[in-house]
Design brief:
Mean pLDDT: 95
Number of strands: 25
Number of helices: 14
Helix content: 25-40%
Distance between the termini: 52 Å
Strand order of the largest sheet: 7-8-9-10-17-14-13-12
Oligomer: single chain
Largest sheet: 8 strands, antiparallel
Structural class: alpha+beta
Low-confidence stretches: none
């Protein structure tokens, strides 16, 4: 598709209009005569989109426009200025886009321009190749789970195929195979949604080039590409415009890649990807372009939308409301997809996810390589994001350079977050054993409930003597949230529960707290501990999201609700969050064993450690019993026995999770 500029057969009027519009977008700009301090990645698509538009239409105006930007890029002595000139993202982007322009319109350029472009591509690709060889085992050359690796090697591969340099394409191909083998089969990505949409399109670009140039079809190699749309889908906020901002996310708008959606839809027959591609390149396009903090952003992908759109794929609106991605320990659950629906996203895993953590440890031990770059990963295992009524209620900090657990909806021990935090590479050089994980997951597609327990004790400084810190999260069918935090330590500690919001919480009814965000709201009930000291405070977060623009600073103010216990060797926090403006009641259930919260028609009973639940009507050996409206079947987690109102409904030798009856 890419090399031949040949899309799948069939009409594509919307994609063609997008291409022509993007080809003309920079006509009023004067190309830079010297290298700006900021990133020049955008110069590449400024040349490639009009090049493809000329190839499609034959209009010489597009040829002249592409030539303007080609000439600007090739006269710069280096690609990239502030950070790793010639060896990083600026060079990777320009290698790909200018090689494509050379392929598409090279024969129609004046001889001198064509020769200069070819020379510049040869020079820059050789610089990139030599750096990749020399730095193997360090930085992006062997950082298989990182966007810099994917972009730089895709750029090198594009130049290699266009210019006939087999050494470049073979090295890039070897790396691509390793990446596909090592990425998580569930399609999740620890860098977060923003870097997913920035980096993963280049994996698809490389696969497209490989298939067309060599006849090698690796689209089925590993499970990552096959399943990654589902990961992206379940990190969408209800209404489809915004994204959940786990990992490094400059903002909540920079999440869509219509071109990639179309390619995944065509390759794997995913109707939801086709539908979302149409939405992202249509109704949502210009607002994302205006509000996105990521450059070059969504608009320059017009060439991919045109070449990757397959009109034969029918689109379908998403309906699945529950998903769990085991590698990243990511649970996502929602009440629906409409604007006012509720969503929770809850994660816990080792740095980079389980597969990256395990494999990079082997690389370190066997090769002496540092292959897992953790710059965009956060100390956020056990944290969650809550969205409802079109607004973010319990929030993530999005992007920071000095990453801290205190920026997330987490717990502190004696005021301390994770060990070795407060830095950019927050997981670098920490012990292999320092891993978080999820257990007891309930996320069936039809059950309505969602449940998981995050084990995060290992993430704290061993000197604190934390033996247990388990957070259980339950999302009810109506979108209510129950949190149970169980903590134990060798000596007495202060335990702090943190809830981050976009504006300060307010006193609510019955001693609760009220979260407001625009017209949206939620009530927070703290059932235990009763004697916690509660304060509301501002938390400032600062970040520079791109090393290629060192003067850029993003600042954000979180509003932190902090509840801190008196000193003790153990602590228990029981919390409920109920979205919605209508009056709602939540009450603690009297339990002889276990803990519980009832909302009337929905009741949550928990015992994640002892697994013994005893109330006036329930006797269960289970981590959780989840009761819905009268007449509906109960759900259990890790249960061997359930007796309800004197009737034994379940008795099995091995723990069972799911619907009873």
């Amino acid at each position: 598709m890419l090399l031949s500029a040949t899309p799948p057969p069939g009409p594509r009027p919307a994609q063609q209009a997008r291409l022509y519009e993007e080809a003309a977008r920079h006509r009023g700009l004067t190309p830079p005569r010297t290298h700006p301090l900021a990133s020049i990645t955008w110069l590449g698509p400024a040349a490639s989109n009009p090049a493809l538009a000329y190839r499609v239409s034959g209009d010489p105006v597009h040829l002249a426009e592409s030539r303007r930007w080609i000439e600007a890029a090739v006269r710069l002595p280096h690609w990239g200025k502030a950070h790793m000139p010639d060896h990083d993202l600026d060079a990777g982007w320009l290698l790909h886009h200018l090689s494509m322009a050379y392929r598409w319109i090279g024969d129609d350029l004046p001889d001198g321009v064509r020769a200069l472009l070819r020379y510049k591509l040869l020079l820059q690709a050789r610089r990139m190749y030599e750096f990749a060889v020399a730095s193997e085992g360090r930085w992006w050359s062997s950082s298989y789970w990182q966007n810099h690796n994917w972009i730089c090697y895709a750029g090198l591969a594009t130049a290699g195929y266009v210019l006939g340099k087999e050494a470049w394409t073979e090295r890039a191909k070897d790396n691509l195979g390793t990446v596909l083998d090592l990425m998580p089969d569930d399609g999740s990505h620890a860098e977060g949604v923003v870097y997913w949409r920035y980096g993963v399109p280049f994996l698809a670009i490389h696969l497209d080039l490989l298939q067309e140039a060599e006849g090698v079809d690796w689209w089925g190699r590993g499970g990552f590409l096959t399943n990654t749309f589902r990961y992206r889908l379940h990190q969408l906020a209800p209404g489809f415009a915004f994204n959940v901002d786990h990992g490094d996310c400059h903002d909540r708008r920079s999440g869509h890649s219509a071109g990639l959606y179309y390619r995944l839809a065509a390759q794997y027959g995913i109707p939801q990807a086709q539908w979302l591609g149409d939405l992202a390149s249509g109704e949502l396009l210009w607002q994302e372009a205006a509000e996105s903090g990521v450059r070059p952003g969504i608009l320059p992908e017009a060439y991919l939308e045109y070449l990757w759109y397959d009109p034969s794929v029918a689109g379908a609106r998403p309906t699945e409301t529950r998903a769990f991605f085991p590698d990243l320990g990511l649970l996502a659950a929602r009440t629906g997809w409409d604007d006012d629906a509720s969503l929770v996203s809850f994660k816990a895993s080792p740095g980079g996810g389980h597969k990256a953590w395990e494999t990079s440890a082997k690389h370190r031990a066997e090769l002496g390589w540092e292959s897992l770059n953790q710059g965009h990963h956060h100390p956020d295992s056990g944290s969650f994001v809550l969205v409802s009524q079109g607004a973010f209620l319990a929030v993530d900090e999005g992007y920071s350079n000095r990453k801290r657990a205190a920026h997330h909806n987490l717990l502190l021990v004696d005021g301390q977050g994770y060990a070795d935090e407060d830095r950019y590479h927050v997981y670098k050089d920490i012990p292999y054993e320092r891993q978080a994980r999820q257990r007891d997951v309930l996320a069936g597609p039809d059950c309505g409930w969602a449940h998981a327990t995050a084990e995060i004790a290992a993430m704290y400084d061993p000197a604190l003597g934390v033996r247990r810190l388990d957070r259980t999260l339950v999302f009810t069918p109506s979108g209510r949230l129950v949190l149970l935090d169980l903590a134990e330590a060798d000596t007495e500690r202060e335990w702090s529960f943190l809830l981050q919001t976009d504006r300060p919480t307010e006193p609510g009814p019955d001693g609760g707290r009220l979260i407001r965000s625009g017209a949206a709201s939620a009530l927070v009930w703290r059932f235990a501990p009763q004697d916690a000291a509660v304060v509301s405070e501002a938390t400032e977060v600062e970040a520079n999201p791109t090393s290629s623009t060192p003067e850029l600073r993003l600042t954000r103010t979180l509003h932190t609700l902090r509840a801190t216990t008196t000193r003790s060797t153990d602590a228990l926090f029981l919390t409920a969050i109920v979205p919605g403006a209508a009056p709602a009641s939540a009450e603690q259930v009297v339990c002889a064993q276990g803990q519980g919260v009832t909302f009337g028609e929905e009741t949550v009973l928990l015992s994640p450690v002892a697994r013994r639940i005893r109330t006036a009507t329930v006797s269960a050996d289970a981590a959780a019993v989840l009761l819905g409206a009268e007449g509906s079947a109960p759900y259990v987690v890790a249960a061997t026995r359930l007796e309800l109102d004197g009737r034994v409904l379940l008795e099995v030798p091995e723990p069972y999770t799911g619907k009873v009856g």
